[in-house]
From TrEMBL:
<feature type="binding site">
    <location>
        <begin position="183"/>
        <end position="184"/>
    </location>
    <ligand>
        <name>S-adenosyl-L-methionine</name>
    </ligand>
</feature>
<keyword id="KW-0808">Transferase</keyword>
<feature type="binding site">
    <location>
        <position position="132"/>
    </location>
    <ligand>
        <name>[4Fe-4S] cluster</name>
    </ligand>
</feature>
<feature type="binding site">
    <location>
        <position position="128"/>
    </location>
    <ligand>
        <name>[4Fe-4S] cluster</name>
    </ligand>
</feature>
<comment type="function">
    <text>Specifically methylates position 2 of adenine 2503 in 23S rRNA and position 2 of adenine 37 in tRNAs.</text>
</comment>
<keyword id="KW-0963">Cytoplasm</keyword>
<dbReference type="InterPro" id="IPR027492">
    <property type="entry name" value="RNA_MTrfase_RlmN"/>
</dbReference>
<feature type="domain" description="Radical SAM core">
    <location>
        <begin position="114"/>
        <end position="358"/>
    </location>
</feature>
<feature type="active site" description="Proton acceptor">
    <location>
        <position position="108"/>
    </location>
</feature>
<keyword id="KW-0411">Iron-sulfur</keyword>
<keyword id="KW-0698">rRNA processing</keyword>
<dbReference type="InterPro" id="IPR013785">
    <property type="entry name" value="Aldolase_TIM"/>
</dbReference>
<keyword id="KW-0489">Methyltransferase</keyword>
<comment type="similarity">
    <text>Belongs to the radical SAM superfamily. RlmN family.</text>
</comment>
<protein>
    <recommendedName>
        <fullName>Probable dual-specificity RNA methyltransferase RlmN</fullName>
        <ecNumber>2.1.1.192</ecNumber>
    </recommendedName>
</protein>
<feature type="binding site">
    <location>
        <begin position="240"/>
        <end position="242"/>
    </location>
    <ligand>
        <name>S-adenosyl-L-methionine</name>
    </ligand>
</feature>
<dbReference type="InterPro" id="IPR004383">
    <property type="entry name" value="rRNA_lsu_MTrfase_RlmN/Cfr"/>
</dbReference>
Length: 370
């Protein structure tokens, strides 16, 4: 029996966060300063402090006039979020931070440092309206959309912690960003696209990351997936599929009652064909629910029906526990069989390296509670 759950696409209206330079284009930053009676050319210096030097202390911005420094910072670098706590795992190389936004909303981000890369998993909404029953975030409901600058600040904060040797491994930089934290990124489309542009624009306009290091995840908002294909930004698209058949996916991912498996996979294929970027299919492995061999075969057939030109990769995710959930992770033997069957059909498949589960910082565990 399918349990119909509410889907929320429009976030409740709350007080807007203060405008921040990360919300604005280079020209808009100049105009904002001029509107406030401040010299517009200082916008470039402020941008360099934020994106290139990763400075957050006005007293360190010594190239700004002392009598204007705090007014300039207040105009373009207002405080957007305050850290409530940071939990660490994996010897300090995994760090989950709980943030309080200006209106009291709580969100979480996770920094994961590996030998060859550092990834920041960011939230795009406070809460989530997609109501997936196996996800802690989805069970909490949606509070509001985040602004472009609030999203960017999670990455910049991670970059600061690396630059300040707060993460074991010495100085480093953020190489990857995944929009897999709290919220459905494509339900907050404009802010997310704005954040992607800020992250990938060269300093001082932005953080100067490679777009190929950015992954945008979605449960399958088909019109927005197609819109993303036309943006001209070569990010990786990740489709959280979790089931190859509509009967089960209607229950696991309620948005499937609006855009079904065929429509979601078709939109993913369209993204790959348009951008020439391989799409990732995210599949949380749940014991006795979606991990049967025949479902692996069906998933392989669905993906293979669009051709074998390497357009897709399956990323299996061992389900992470959430409080009070009836869902549990698959048996490792079933997981291996699932991989074997997909690979037999020519579908590249990997099992995600799960990090941070002991601090509720892994996929599906972010709940932002104090």
């Amino acid at each position: 029996m399918v349990t119909q759950l509410p889907l929320v696409f429009d976030a409740p209206r709350r007080g807007k966060p203060p405008r921040h330079l990360a919300d604005l284009t280079v020209d808009e930053r100049v105009e904002l300063l001029k509107e406030k009676g401040l010299p517009g050319f200082r916008a470039k210096q402020l941008s360099a402090h934020y994106f290139a030097r990763l400075v957050d202390d006005p007293d360190q911005m010594t190239d700004l006039p002392a009598d204007q420094r705090h007014a300039l910072v207040e105009a373009l670098l207002p405080t957007l979020m305050t850290p409530v706590r940071t939990l660490e795992a994996d010897g300090g190389t995994t760090r989950k931070t709980l943030w309080r936004l200006h209106d009291g909303a709580l969100v979480e981000s996770v920094l994961m440092r590996y030998r060859d890369r550092t990834t920041v998993c960011v939230s795009s909404q406070a809460g989530c309206g997609m109501a997936c029953p196996f996800c802690a975030t989805g069970q909490g409901g949606l509070q509001r959309n985040m602004s472009t600058a609030e999203i960017v600040e999670q990455v910049v904060a991670g970059a600061r912690s690396l630059a300040r040797d707060e993460v074991p491994g010495g100085h480093g930089r953020v190489s990857n960003v995944v929009f897999m934290g709290m919220g459905e990124p494509l339900a907050n489309y404009n802010a997310v696209i704005g954040a992607v542009r800020r992250l990938t624009e060269p300093a001082p306009a932005g953080l100067g990351m490679s777009a190929r290091g950015v992954t945008v995840s979605t449960v399958g908002l088909v019109p927005r997936m197609r819109q993303l294909a036309d943006e001209g930004i070569p990010v990786t698209l990740a489709l959280s599929l979790h089931a190859p058949d509509d009967e089960l996916r209607n229950e696991l991912v309620p948005v499937n009652t609006r855009w079904n498996v065929q429509e979601a996979v078709e939109a993913a294929w369209h993204y790959a064909a348009t951008t020439k970027r391989r799409v990732s299919i995210e599949y949380a492995m749940m014991r006795g629910i979606n991990d049967q061999g025949w479902r692996a075969d069906l998933l392989g057939d669905v993906l293979q029906s669009y051709g074998d030109w390497g357009w897709v990769h399956v990323n299996l995710i061992p389900l992470n526990p959430t409080p009070g959930s009836k869902w549990t992770a698959s048996d490792p033997a079933d997981e291996r069989e699932f991989v074997r069957r997909l690979e037999a059909k020519g579908i590249p498949t990997t099992v995600r390296d799960t990090r941070g589960s002991d601090i509720d910082g892994a996929c599906g565990q972010l709940a932002a509670v104090e």
